[in-house]
Amino acid sequence: MKLIIASLVLFAAAGTAAAQDPINRYDIQDMTCNQVHSILGREGAAILRYPSPSGSGRMLYDRYVNSPTICFGQGGHAVQRVVPTKDTKGCPTISCRPGPPECDTLGFDMFYCDDDN
Q: Residue 36 and residue 14: Cα distance in Å, rounded?
């Protein structure tokens, strides 16, 4: 019994440590879409920075993830987004939003919600 309790404590501590790992930031304007997907696949989540498509010169950024389950596990929902990369203006990605998805009116899609951004 002590072994089971010790194992559970060890797994809980490992999960907490992983959740607190620092998140890396990337300027993606000189990266390809495949490079962005590789980063997200390897790290699970990253802050992606890129110039505003409006041409205003502002840098935009957000946290992007490789799986919608990351969002669901944090009490949120995933939205499909596109970011501009060196080889395309519309590299498909996923980011998280807090709470349940507003567009999920039928209750069938608990992970994805299309976003205008």
A: 27
